Amino acid sequence: MTTKLRAHLVWAHPRDNSLTSALVRAVHDSLVERGCDVDELDLYRSGFDPVLHEPDEPDWDDPTKTYSTVVEELADRARRANIIVVVFPLWWYALPAVLKGYLDRAWNFGRLYGDNSGAKPSAVVWVALAGLSHEALDKRGHIDALARQLDDGVAGYCEIGDSRTIVLCDAIDAPDLVAYVNQVTQQLDEVVRDTRGQ
Ligand SMILES: Cc1cc2nc3c(=O)[nH]c(=O)nc-3n(C[C@H](O)[C@H](O)[C@H](O)COP(=O)(O)O)c2cc1C
Question: Which residue segments constitute the domains of the chain, with CATH numbers given?
Fold first, then answer.
């Protein structure tokens, strides 16, 4: 029997009936079909507060510092996963505030990066839905910039070896959910296979 992989599916969108949420449902199903146990975190409807207050500020001299209960729980959920998948709409070429705040707070020093942070997920897949066309984003370097920020700036700093950023374009004028799901599942196939092979 193949051991189940643990996937943490984190997503951000104000509406539960959005294109983003439809994609999340399809990604959830794809992960289950690929033999993963899925722990889903819907940041908006979980009531998550993205603002980092003093209790969650890192103490650079103390990686064992205990953070707020919600941050300890969310950091544990992220660390326990073999694979993390993050789905969001691209806002101002970047992450929605609730998702940025999730990284600020939950992917904290001594938990997801730095001394004492221990075992990590082996892969993270970032899935951004973008209103603009691929051409419009690419010609100004926005796709590379997002990938650099997430793959190198976040995942690399957390020593997560396999990080992939997928930008799904034309989400306003010509959304194609089937094509989006295919692009994501292609990457999930590789990530699941590589993670099992480790
Ligand atoms: C605040 C805000 C900022 C946005 N910024 C961008 C952007 O920088 N680049 C882009 O291609 N689309 C941008 N968009 C369009 C969204 O990416 C698009 O509406 C979304 O991906 C569509 O998915 P949804 O229907 O699930 O919201 C922005 C939308 C909003 C509301």
Answer: 5-197 (3.40.50.360)
Alpha helices in 12-114 (DSSP H): 19-33, 69-80, 97-106
Nearest-CA residue for ligand 1 atom 3 is 91
What local confidence, expressed as pLDDT, does residue 115 receive? 82
Q: What is the pLDDT of residue 22?
A: 98
Token pair, residue 178, equals: 């089937």
The answer, yes or no, to whether any atom of ligand 1 lies below 6 A from the CB of 131, is yes
Q: Is residue 78 a contact partner of residue 121, using CB atoms and an 8 Å limit?
A: yes
- Measured CA distances, 36 to 11, 30, 166 (Å): 17, 9, 20
Give pLDDT < 70 ranges for the chain: 1
Separation of CA 137 and ligand 1 centre (Å): 12
- Per-residue pLDDT of 121-159, as tens digits, reads 999 999 999 999 999 999 999 999 999 999 999 999 999
> Are the CB atoms for 65 and 58 separated by under 8 Å?
yes
* Contact (Cβ atoms closer than 8 angstroms) between residue 35 and residue 67: no
Could you tell me whether strands 36-42 and 83-89 are parallel, antiparallel, or unpaired per DSSP bridges? unpaired
70 CB within 6 A, ligand 1: no
For residues 110 and 173, what is the distance between their CA atoms, to the nearest angstrom? 43
- Compute, in angstroms, the gap from residue 72 CA to the centroid of ligand 1: 31
In short, whether 174's Cβ falls inside 6 Å of ligand 1 is no
Strands (E), 142-198: 162-168
